[in-house]
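Person: I have long wanted to understand how a fold can be written as tokens. Underneath my words sits a plain record pairing an amino acid chain with its backbone structure tokens. Those tokens are not coordinates but codes from a learned vocabulary of shapes. I should like you to check that the lines agree and flag anything odd. The protein I mean follows directly.
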Amino acid sequence: MNQVFYRKYRPKSFSEVIGQEHVVQTLTNALKSGAVSHGYLFSGPRGSGKTTLARLLAKSVNCSNRGSTGSPEPCNQCDSCREINEGRNIDLTEIDAASHRGIDEIRELKEGIKFSPTKSKYKVFIIDESHQLTKEAANALLKTLEEPPAHAIFILATTELHKMIPTIVSRCQHFEFRRLKLAEIIQRLRFIAGKEGIKIDPAALEMIALSSGGSFRDAEGLLDQAAAFSGQADKKETTISAEDLRELMGVVEVQKISRLMDRLAEKNAAQAIILLNAAFDQGADLSQLVIGLIGHLHATLMYKIGGEQLHDPLSDGLTDEEFQKLKERAGKFPEEELRRLINLLLEAQQQMKSSPIIQLPLELAFAEFCGI
């Protein structure tokens, strides 16, 4: 069975990590000097590399050959490194707090900590989405972090730092992971495509990166899907195009969104609703359409507020070419009207989830915006 790309190409050394240089440098310096902490907290957006770096740290502290080389990098050859790469190292415990969040799981973890590592120097515990631990579980974990055994290392990961108990944060070395840049995601996708022999248009690569929301994992998953969708997984001589991606992801063409914006700027509710229903009849995913429309309006508002310095491709999902066209249209919308329309669409987006007629909330939002 073929491995999915995000598992197959997960970095196996610190030098392969992209986009978190500040974290990598601090961790590798600690490994070189032997100043490894017993508690770490990695916070940041999903798919930014938190669990990847947690596994790399676990691998390095237990690498049998690292001491002889003086390098912070794991050798990836010793038994410990191979077992971690293959997900079968008994001294590495990974807990998903989203599904194992109760006091019983933490009590079980505390019992396991009492015993020395079976084969390794350290027992390493990675707790993902640690903000989802119950209050009782978090307090139990806190007691362990306050008096950790010498052979234990805890690495907590979270996407929602504000939900963490402050005393847990204070007991850990805290590293903030930044959201990845568009160019970094495209670079990574191009590398994987080259390794896999996948032929893909640059526009399609950019579309995948823009749709990832800054997550390597999501971007690699989309590339994997695109390869299967286009026949590339079977090594057929085809090239993945932007049109293939639109069909796969249900992305609504930019031209349709642009025409909708023009009609709304004119306060022409009837024509806006006609365009909406025509897109629906042609098979457009209305949930994707409203996401695209909100993205365009958000980009327009940010441009009017702060010019090009507020253009964020990963936030609004626009290529540079699409953004240039959007700038030309920005004068049609006053700022106050943009804010009002965005709020109406955000409300409609929620209402669509329970509406018996999926387009009805959007139709009502268009009508209200146009003064009907």
